[in-house]
Amino acid sequence: MLWQLLAMWVIVGSVTVWFLRDEMRLNRSRQLQRIERIMAAPAAMTSASAVAVPLPALAAPKPARPAHQDRARFLAALARD
């Protein structure tokens, strides 16, 4: 009698494990099918013309110092050291 009760519980447990594994397999299969459908669909943002992207504004160029000013500062720095 005890072995029959144990056998019934083993059968219930094995059916439960089989059912859960089969459900996980079906979920994975459905997820892969959904991914395949998404990947096979054309992209939503494709167009034949190029999209213009505005560039950031450039800073105004600094006014150039005369070369003799730079040379004088360089010589003054050398004289200090």
β-sheet strand percentage: under 5%
- Provide the helix percentage: 55-70%
Weakly predicted, low-confidence segments: none
Overall number of strands: 0
Overall pLDDT metric: 84
Tell me, what's the shape?
elongated
Q: How many angstroms does the end-to-end distance come to?
A: 106 Å
Biggest beta sheet summary: none
Rg from Cα: 39 Å
Could you state the order of secondary-structure elements as H and E?
HH
Our count of helices gives 2
Structural class: mainly alpha
Describe the protein's topology.
Layout: H1 2-40, H2 67-80
Characteristic key phrases:
single chain, 81 residues, mainly alpha, 2 helices, 65% helix
Walk me through what this model shows.
The structure is a single chain. The protein has 81 residues and is mainly α. The chain contains two helices and no strands. The chain has helices at residues 2-40, 67-80. The longest helix is centred in the N-terminal third of the chain and has 39 residues, at 2-40. The model has no long low-confidence stretch (mean pLDDT 84).
Short description:
It is built from 2 helices and no strands.
